[in-house]
Design goal:
mainly beta, Pnp Oxidase, Chain A, seven-stranded antiparallel beta sheet, three-stranded antiparallel beta sheet, about 15% helix, globular
Length: about 170
């Protein structure tokens, strides 16, 4: 029989506790893109990307309703989902930075299926049709059905852990 783990007294749920726990959770890094109401590209860095269903192929991601990209995602019929490679720390930081010119140089991108902005040189990408936006506190969980994509040719993913970007180590 093994001894029970030595657990500290539980702390009340606060945003500080929540953030402290999730700083210990490593997550893959993606960039979500869409077109805003006037057709301009918009996008943000996400660490909440998750597979939802294989049949039909669906995914989800979270976005803060205070994000400058939320109005574009709220109105968009389609989004681009880009899985970043470990060498793309600068790209992740650009799309995470408030007020940045995310689609200006050096960001390389093109128009993809359904008019979705597609980032060049990413590890993999998908174009998805938005099928739902679920309220979740100060965020929305976006559900999207995969329409097309490119799984890429391999390479290591970019991870986010303890407030920093990292490559995957064996």
């Amino acid at each position: 029989m093994t001894a029970a783990p030595d657990l500290a007294a539980p702390r009340p749920a606060t945003d500080d506790l929540f953030r402290s726990v999730f700083r210990r959770h490593a997550a893959g890094v993606a960039v979500i893109t869409a077109r805003d109401g006037s057709g301009r590209p918009a996008g943000f860095t996400a660490t909440s990307l998750a597979s939802v269903s294989a049949e039909p192929p669906m995914l989800s991601f979270g976005i803060a309703t205070t994000s400058s990209t939320w109005p574009a995602v709220a109105a968009a019929g389609h989004v681009g989902v880009h899985v970043l490679a470990e060498h793309q720390r600068d790209l992740a930081a650009t799309f995470a930075r408030s007020g940045a010119d995310r689609f200006g140089p050096p960001t390389a991108w093109r128009e993809g299926p359904e008019g979705v902005p597609l980032l060049d040189g990413v590890l993999a990408w998908l174009v998805c049709r938005v099928v739902g936006r679920v309220p979740a506190g100060d965020h929305r969980i976006v559900l999207a059905e995969v329409l097309a994509g490119d799984p890429g040719e391999g390479g290591g993913p970019l991870l986010y852990h303890a407030g920093r970007y990292h490559g995957l180590r064996e």
